[in-house]
Design the sequence.
């Protein structure tokens, strides 16, 4: 799909990263964006008009709602679609896959030709510009600082007779450690939600964000993915730590995950095939004694995809997992995050972020993989 | 629309508060939810299956993706819709207005009867249960603590020879004050994004979140709307402060806004009409010397709606503004937030949150309106 297809978005830039990508304007209320022959327009209410003019990308033409629709009673989405269908009667409009059905039905009913197909409205979003690369590198620097804070707290913790961790004279919980991580992100201008600090058996459930007292000699999976408030770009990284001594199985699993991360990352280059990297990670872990499979109770081993693109969305293209055949392109940025999860003893995950470069790849995650603290 | 209409949602609970309302399950990846004759189902991948069983509302039946769709190649939205159309061939499915057009088109193409109409899928969402009332009251307590932190910082600030504010031996900026507010929210288990600390002329633009050095003797609008991480419910409040001495016009405008807030709030009761409250606020401010209107440059005066419902969305039903005719019901919770904005000197906004009770209303905002600090 050519980049200069006529486009239509009706959303807030909170809910549509496409809209944020196109306009650069952060707004929590929905507004209309359209693009005709590569010329970009956004229609703004009185409340946002001035801020939109100040903060949008320079190539976006900001239209005043009240100037293009004179009748106050018509200042609603239907009025906007009527305006478009009158002004551009013969156009096909391409909308993002997440365009609200209600408004698509409305636009179609008044005669707009709406195409909603399974491709990216802005296919170049996965290929980052130099500015975007800087924004994500910055987000990763924030993420690493927040991880350092978490690691330091674990290191500073004492271990009581019950093998519970004590920090600042109180029991250290997942909740406290998440709070300290999130505060560090806020200090650095980012917002982290759903930060994962999962200890013991909870670490075996990749999306369990963790709760309760953290203990020594057990793995603690820490996954931090803050979004920089100013730019909207995300960081994402995971480390797994044991305060005290890890068991042999945890040490061996950690080593297998580490080898899978390093081994699959080394294959990142222009033209490499995502599913091959995923399969390589699976193989490396299997060859180191850790199988993936399913039994009567559920799945075990490496039960998620190897990675995902990161940008204005925390999960975006490219996808790195089984059946993902689209070769990597120069300037793509994504995570490499193998993991192993067993309900008997817990989980391990290690996650870095890489950029596809001319020479192969560059990792944005300059942070050692240390298991025992 | 009866509550037991058959419903279909395909979304993440991050992007669909309807889904979060129905399931109580916080997930950042999309999943299928459907409801037939009032029986609720959610389909979960291996990654989320166990967590969904642990964390969803008890009346939601959690289905294992791999149990209902045996062919791995069919484990995608189309496979899910095929499953539904085979299992329930004759049903009408109601979807939320923000259901992604791409998936609605897909479901229709394989023969599902999809209805996307302009009403709430869960009309009772605006009428809060006792639990929800507690969650929002709690969110408001967090919000007030964050506001207290901001007020205290302004009070502690010194004023230098240029009338700039100095706090902790550095120039106090909007950015620093927002950071301190957001840290306080994190400490209390909430996430605040887009916090507004708009000083001087920036306070005249209601959605300008503010930037740069804060000054004495000028209004600073502080609008804090944190979301409690655990429950997903929001708080929302605004105060306007002047560190030092306010000018006469700022004092008078503040008084007019205060009277509009108190006067319109007193009319909150079961059966009251939202647009009348809005009109009353406009009248009170006009009678106190502050008109609303438009000139060559733009709008001035009271340029937004009087309030909005708050729950799992920061903006939800009921709406309180012009043309809003639906009478208030018992258990509705919403903001009352009159404001005045003039590009010559800045803006004032005061925002409280109220619950419609049998006796009239209860305010959740126990926080004095003090202009000068």
Sequence:
């Amino acid at each position: 799909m050519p980049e200069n297809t006529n486009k239509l978005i009706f959303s807030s830039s909170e809910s549509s990263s496409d809209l944020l990508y196109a306009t650069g304007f952060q707004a929590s209320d929905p507004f209309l964006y359209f693009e005709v022959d590569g010329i970009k327009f956004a229609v703004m209410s009185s409340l946002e008009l001035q801020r939109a003019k100040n903060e949008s990308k320079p190539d976006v033409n900001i239209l005043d709602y009240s100037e293009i629709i004179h009748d106050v009673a018509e200042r609603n989405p239907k009025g906007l679609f009527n305006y478009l269908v009158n002004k551009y009667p013969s156009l096909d409009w391409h909308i993002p896959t997440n365009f609200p059905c209600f408004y698509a039905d409305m636009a179609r009913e008044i005669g707009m030709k709406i195409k909603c197909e399974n491709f990216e409205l802005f296919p170049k979003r996965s290929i980052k510009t130099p500015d975007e690369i800087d924004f994500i590198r910055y987000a990763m620097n924030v993420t690493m600082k927040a991880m350092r804070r978490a690691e330091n707290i674990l290191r500073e913790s004492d271990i009581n007779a019950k093998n519970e961790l004590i920090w600042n004279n109180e029991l250290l919980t997942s909740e406290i450690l998440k709070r300290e991580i999130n505060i560090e992100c806020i200090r650095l201008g980012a917002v982290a939600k759903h930060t994962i600090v999962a200890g013991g058996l909870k670490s075996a459930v990749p999306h369990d964000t963790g709760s309760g007292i953290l203990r020594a000699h057990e793995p603690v999976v820490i996954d931090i993915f803050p979004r920089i408030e100013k730019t909207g770009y995300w960081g994402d990284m995971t480390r797994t730590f044991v305060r005290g001594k890890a068991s042999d199985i945890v040490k061996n699993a950690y080593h297998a995950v580490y080898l899978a991360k390093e081994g699959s990352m080394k294959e990142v280059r222009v033209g490499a095939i995502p599913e091959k990297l995923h399969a390589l990670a699976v193989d490396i872990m299997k060859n180191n004694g850790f199988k993936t499979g399913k039994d009567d109770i559920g799945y075990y081993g490496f039960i998620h995809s190897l990675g995902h693109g990161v940008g204005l969305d925390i999960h975006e293209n490219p996808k790195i997992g089984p059946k993902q055949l689209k070769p990597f392109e120069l300037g793509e940025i994504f995570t490499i995050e193998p993991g192993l999860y067993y309900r008997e003893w817990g989980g391990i995950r290690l996650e870095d972020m890489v950029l596809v470069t001319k020479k192969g790849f560059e990792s944005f995650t300059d942070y050692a993989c240390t298991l025992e603290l």
In short: The domain at 126-363 of chain B is CATH 3.90.230.10 (Creatine Amidinohydrolase). The first strand of chain B starts at residue 7 and ends at 11. Chain B has a mean pLDDT of 95. The longest helix of chain B spans residues 130-156.
